[in-house]
Amino acid sequence: MYKIGVIGDKDSILPFKALGIDVFPVVGPEETRKTLDTLAMKKYGVVFITEQSAVLIPESIERYNKELVPAVILIPSNQGSLHIGLDRINENVEKAVGSNIL
């Protein structure tokens, strides 16, 4: 059975713990990359990562986008959205449907 994890700054991800989701606070690109790689090895099926953390490790995010597991989902932090996650959703919808219906 796969697990769900959240990576990002402590203030943004701590509320997920109340939902029973594993939280992994990180600081800096190296710690973020290592945590994402560890979760992938430990059979996490879905990994939410804050957009602010994702911009620090674009090559790792892209690598996992090509894999089925884990699904890496970008979410806004408590500091607001960079619209990266929404842009990725729009791109995927456009690929699937042939035009941007959103």
Question: What are the defining features of this structure?
Answer:
4-stranded parallel β-sheet; 5 helices; about 45% helix; globular
Folded structure, characterized:
The protein has helices at residues 10-17, 29-41, 51-54, 58-65, 84-97, and strands at residues 3-8, 22-25, 44-50, 71-75. By secondary structure, the chain is of the alpha/beta class. A four-stranded parallel β-sheet has the order 2-1-3-4, with helices on both faces. The longest helix has 14 residues, at 84-97. The model has no long low-confidence stretch (mean pLDDT 87).
Strand order of the largest sheet: 2-1-3-4
Number of strands: 4
Strand content: 15-25%
Helix content: 40-55%
Quaternary structure classification: single chain
Task: Please identify the structural class as seen in this structure.
Answer: alpha/beta
Distance between the termini: 33 Å
SSE blueprint and pairings:
Elements: E1 3-8, H1 10-17, E2 22-25, H2 29-41, E3 44-50, H3 51-54, H4 58-65, E4 71-75, H5 84-97
Parallel strand pairs: 1-2, 1-3, 3-4
In short:
The protein is α/β, with parallel strands linked by helices. The chain contains five helices and four strands; from the N terminus they run E-H-E-H-E-H-H-E-H.
